[in-house]
Amino acid sequence: MELPQPIRIGISACLMGEEVRYDGGHKRFPFATDELSRHFEFVHVCPEQAIGMGVPRPTIRLVGDPDQPRLQGTQDASLDVTEKMQVFARDTAQKLDHISGYIFCAKSPSCGMERVPVVSEKGNGLGKVGVGVYARELMAAHPLLPVEENGRLNDLQLRENFVLRVVAYARWQALEAEGMTAAGLQTFHRRHKFLLLAHNQQIYRELGPLVAGADDVEAAANEYIQRFMAALKKPANPRNHRNALMHIQGFFKNHLEKEDRERLSEVIADYAAGLLPLLVPLEMLSLFLEKYQIDYLQDQYYFNPYPRDLKLRVGL
């Protein structure tokens, strides 16, 4: 499949095997270093090292109001790097407008995107209710950017969904770089039709009229991408995949013999019932597409949303 080149993903440097953690170690994440690195370029960031904390260094934690915590030393509260981290995060966010996704280090008081432990001023645990100071600033500056944590990416559905969103967002960035036009917006929407159907049917139906009646292309594009990324953010479920598969099946109604139509319907139904993986109906449809060359389906990203060798649909 064609990919916008290059696609860059920001990542916590320790996840790439760099020995930048507080104890001089790392948290190498094989999915990034061994799999994603074949197709994506990584931008490594270690916020603590960047603000001069060094390696090794004292540990830090989130303290106080979970919505606006301080970033202080675990053993010495006089070590407070909150403002330094915020300034670095805001400066870095401005320089990272070329990335298409970000992988944060889970539980980190600087890089954790959710469920980071927070303690009160007196040191009492308030629970896993915080967001890392660096991650919070970066996500606020780039609200459409696909983001995930290494821990969550061990979940097959979240892993597949993250990569799907990264590639889709990179396509959008490439479209913007070329110069947004009404025709470009309409083509983008058409080619993502079945991906949208598989993720959020309601938003798909809403986006059609927005694209068709776009007098102000820039305003329409801004609204479109916000709703498009919101639609893709939740992993597709079997019910919506079934709906997308059945829509695609309809394009073959004048081509397939009765036996093939019935078998395809059975395979789609078995997938929806949890008896077959998604790859089975997809491969069957791909074979029919290769044979009958249905123009509208030829360039649909639903069939190849990301590099096949990442094996992200295995097990879905």
From TrEMBL:
Chain ranges of the DUF1722 domain: 193-307
A Pfam family the protein falls into: DUF1722
Protein's name according to its UniProt entry: DUF1722 domain-containing protein
